Amino acid sequence: MTDATSQMITTADGKPLKAALAASLAVRRRRAFLLVAPLFLFILISFIVPIGQMLFQSFYNDTFSKNAPALVEWFSTHPEGSEIDESAYAALAADLALMKKNRSAGEAGTRINYDVSGTRSLFTSTARGADKFQPPFKEAILKVEKKWDDPNVWRAMRSASSPFTLDFYLAANDLTRDETGKIVPVAEGQAIYKKLMGRTLMLSLEITALCLLLGFPIAFLLSSLPMRKAMLLMILVLLPFWTSLLVRTTAWMVLLQSQGVVNDLLVWLGLIRDDHRIQMMYNETGTIVAMTHILLPFTILPLYSVMKTIPPSYVRAARSLGATSWTAFRRVYLPQTLPGIGAGGLLVFILAMGYYITPALVGGADGQMISNMIAMHMQKTLNWSLAAALAAELLAIVLIFFWIYDKLVGIDKMKLG
Amino acid sequence: MKKLLILTTALVATGYAASAQELNIVSWGGSYTVSQVEAYHKPFTAMTGVKINSIDADNPATPLKAQVEAGNVSIDLADIELSDAIRLCDEGLLEPIDPAMLPPAPDGTPATEDFVPGAIQDCAVANIVWGTVVAYDKTKFPGNEPSTLADFFDTTKYPGKRGLLKTAKRTMEMALVADGVAPDKVYEVLGTDEGVARAFKKLDSIKKDIVWWEAGAQPPQLLADGEVVMTTGYNGRFFAAEVGEGKPFGTIWDGEYMDYDLWAIPKGAPHLEDAKKFLAFSTDTQRLADQAKYIAYGPARKSSNALIGMYKDGKTEMAPYMPTNPENMKNPIWTDPTFWADHDAELAEKFNAWLAS
């Protein structure tokens, strides 16, 4: 018996048991990996890579530097504060000629135009005759376009001469550089992103709070009703959840607009006068109402799944031990629903932060969110780098809230269903 | 990096393969594409036997740009806006167009003189001219109908909510013209800080009454719902509501904002020769006049105006609804794509800051 421990345990065919076990586990691991491989690849290709590329654009933009090699060279040999002399204009002339040849003046000018408005046409119009410039280049170029004298244009070109830049993050925070390169706030009438970011945060928090407030009683009712009735109620929650987002948003438009159902009803009841209809749409109110409704199922479902697992005997026990119904709810029931509140709240908050279609349709002027600006820069001004910088900030804020949640509640306690 | 991103977009955008004897034409969809299919595509296929695949896009310039940059072009021809036509041409993504390939007018006037000014670009040729105009609900102003852009901003004389496009482009120019700036001076004024402030001041005067819209389908809807009594919008959409659906709408042609839609051929188009043939065919005098039968957008050729007949319902004369009708074109604002290429980002930020304030 004593030498049995030193003797190797083998399988029936004589292989060491340890190795046989490892081999069979490896096969299972490989099989498991192969099973998830399609999903993993899908997520990698359709999610992680595009998002990574997009975020990369927020600090990498080579549209100027790749089209202006001579200027890039000049800026690298002449440090900040150097006089813009003939050699600089010679480099500019060489690059403009190259841009004419490659038809890239518009592309390069667009990059500088992000920084100094009105410079895109400066590039395209000067490049048109660029192959005919003769030294002295400074004189020749200034004769065509006086605006090349502007130190701001040269400061912007220096900044754009490196493809890696923080310019877009500055712009996303309503900052810019002055002629000497110092970071300063943009003109008052142009500052917009910080304000919208703050509003997006506020709106998202308000909507989250509303969803929890409205969703909690519904989830409680769902979990305490008998099965048949609960099912019927559940369908009422799920039906709108399965309905298209656009349909639900437009339904709210029909209800809330000033000639809409709600206003008509109030007028008919004599509560308001016909010419004093309440503006409930195309403002912040419209955004909050429609988004709360659309996001409500995301709080109800996790709350319901958590409440379902709480035995009613706990509250009964608390009551029998002398707790008032309020104390029993506060000290016994509520703490047990915390994982559901956390999951539902976080889910709604994150979704609300990035919401786009609903505020675009019912938001009017003061119900806009930062995502509407991102969409504008993606589709209209085509400043994808700025859109990426704004999106990166949005992502960072969501991650910060995620971290706070983890510290306060613990992510392992989250229950999604 | 960007290449890769564009490549993935292009791959998604092009699920179809190119083959001989067909053309892939991308346009904006809806009744606009229908008008092109009826007036251009069907007769072209009947004449040449070339099959045409009509593809819809939110903005045809987007897939075009993505495909050319990725080097995987399946689009032969795209219907794009003027600002995009100029930008894409600047970036070298479009085939240059030789005006000599365009057929002359029936009376022999060369194409370069027959097209309205600005309609023939280096890499694109306009097929239609469309207007952004103000439409109003006739029932709200009996006996006292508004007739000028200034009336749109006068809420004492014409009380009620106003619909306005939520972009700096068009809205700011129309505000300046309503404030008394001559249409041909509008970009000169808008290029200065004082001009921008002046436009915002004009918009401020009605700000509390504005309902903002973004999609072209919204203005006729807002007007029909009674949500606004007057709104800016695209003239073709108002026509469809007024004539097609019999809504009691009236149009203010004063200060109409003129834009083009143009045909452009991407660099590396798989059927370059057929695309050029189609471009010349579809922009001849008769074809442009034919299109006006299906939609109320003006032909880009002057000679087409005389050939415009009835709407497809057979009883509505089209001419009074055309943005290019001399009767309507008394005080037009012609869009300036160079100005917008320069100031788009700056004015968009200022406009949004003004909106949020």
UniProtKB/TrEMBL annotation, chain A:
Transmembrane regions listed in the UniProt entry: 32-56, 201-223, 230-247, 284-304, 341-362, 382-405
Family (UniProt): Belongs to the binding-protein-dependent transport system permease family. CysTW subfamily.
Membrane topology: Multi-pass membrane protein
Subcellular location: Cell membrane
Protein name in UniProt: ABC transporter permease
Keyword check for Membrane: yes
Biological-process GO terms, alphabetical: transmembrane transport
Keywords (A to Z) from UniProt: Cell membrane, Membrane, Transmembrane, Transmembrane helix, Transport
Domain ABC transmembrane type-1: 197-405
Pfam family, one: BPD_transp_1
Keyword Aminoacyl-tRNA synthetase applies: no
Native organism: Paenirhodobacter hankyongi
One annotated Gene Ontology cellular component of this protein: plasma membrane
InterPro entries given in the database record: MetI-like (IPR000515), MetI-like_sf (IPR035906)
UniProtKB/TrEMBL annotation, chain B:
InterPro entries, alphabetized: SBP
Keywords: Signal
Pfam families noted in UniProt: SBP_bac_8
Keyword Protein biosynthesis: no
CDD domains per the UniProt record, alphabetical: PBP2_polyamine_RpCGA009
N-terminal signal peptide: 1-20
Protein name: ABC transporter substrate-binding protein
Organism for this UniProt entry: Paenirhodobacter hankyongi
